[in-house]
Amino acid sequence: KHMRKGGAEKKVPPGPTKLPFIGNLHNLGKLPHRSLQRLSRHHGPLMFLQLGSIPTLVVSSAEMAKEIFKNHDPVFSGRPQLRAANRLGYGSAVSFSPYGEYWREMRRIMISELLSPRRVQSFEAVRLEEVKLLLRSIALSSHPVDLSEFTLSLTNNVVCRIALGKRDRFGVENNTLSEMLKETQEMLGGFFLVDFFPRLRWLGKFCAIENRLERNFREMDKFYEQVIKEHVDKHERDEAEHEHEDVVDVLLRVQRDPNQPIAITDDQIKGVLVDIFVAGTDTAAATMIWTMSELIRNPNAMKRAQEEIRQVLKGKEMVEEVDLPRLLYFKSVVKEALRLHPPAPLLVPRETTEACTIQGFEIPAKTRVLVNAKSIAMDPTCWENPNEFLPERFLDSPIDFRGQHFEMLPFGVGRRGCPGMNFAMPLVELVLANLLYRFHWELPLGLGIQDLNMEEAIGITMHKRDHLWLKATPFLQ
Ligand code: HEM
């Protein structure tokens, strides 16, 4: 546990015993955020592991997260270059880029051009239309509905329309975009030897998963090529309207603009599309499903949220975004679901850009850093009854999910924190508020609350493992 640096001996943080060669890889288990949460109870909120040959720091308390991100944010703002992320993101996705000039410029363009309040607002009609379609399909089904499927297809359609200008009814070689994206998500959560044993790069080439990765890359690339070509053609025919630009229109406009500090390539445009699809669809859908599941398990919270919405809406046909700020209890419900079920429980891996000392421990340069958002939000020193779903706790608390309060970090923190929060939340809240306003929800006949399985699925986004099937009965307005 001792490292030599500049002559002085400094300790790395404590951690479990390593095995030869694999280090602590065997400690990760099926759901790494769970295994790491258990381990950190023994070894503390600053824990050091070796995953394969990669030194890895795990941060598991609000206090440690604060110490690190208040005082050393730039040092902890690197991202490791992982195999699937690098390939599928063209080495150009903002989320996976190393800390540096390219990341800074692209993130700035993304925030000012794609995720600005004005732009988000301009897509309200798209969100509303898709929610209406969802409400209609639910109303038409007399059987229980697969809400997991419905919400995922809704977020896919919204993101598709905003990014590409059309709904998800297309793809390549008979695969729809959502099918291809499902494979992308699996690849990003998959195990690639080279990510843990960089020296065995040559061996990785023989792994079956490499073929799957290449296949998914080629399909997605064909798709992006097609999309870019359609947009270029549209521009040349002069049919692009500035008012209704989609993400690809905007990026092509920035690409043509000689005053931009960096010249954007087509691959970089594709990288940003990967960012938006990967970061923006599953996470939002997972938040909706965890919230509905918790409400089914907590009938009092369900009743209170529905009563509030009905009282505020006073018989309006549906909830619109202007109504959301008045739904205080409802907003606390969503916050509480994000606390207990952060859709990216280990955020997106970070990497230290240089060596640094935290609370007397030496953290070497190029250490991989996992921030356990799930442990942090269940830290008993910050939260009373941390395992219980209690939306009331937020009613008179300033704690929010925006990255300013270290007690919960579902969108991450600091300069690498999620830039899509204000894009995601209006959609998540609009969908949920309308589901609650328009329908009475219950488990399919014969099932009780104890039958609702809350287990988590494996993957980079923490979905509920079993789909949520619910019976919806329309309320008469
Ligand atoms: C409920 C929905 C969402 C959740 C819970 C979520 C969560 C996160 C988290 C935890 C991170 C890592 C932050 C860190 O390392 O500190 C992240 C990064 C990111 N998210 Fe989101 N996100 C959501 C929606 C979106 C949407 C809709 C977009 C874009 C349209 C988006 C774009 C990004 C990007 C580009 C990054 C990488 C930022 C960087 O590395 O500089 N996210 N998100």
Automatic annotation (TrEMBL):
CDD domains: CYP71-like (cd11072). PROSITE patterns: CYTOCHROME_P450. Its cofactor is heme. InterPro entries: Cyt_P450, Cyt_P450_CS, Cyt_P450_E_grp-I, Cyt_P450_sf. Heme binds at C418. One of its GO terms (molecular function) is monooxygenase activity. Keywords: Heme, Iron, Metal-binding, Monooxygenase, Oxidoreductase, Signal. The keyword Kinase does not apply. It comes from the Eukaryota. Belongs to the cytochrome P450 family. This is Cytochrome P450 71A9. The lineage of its organism: Eukaryota, Viridiplantae, Streptophyta, Embryophyta, Tracheophyta.
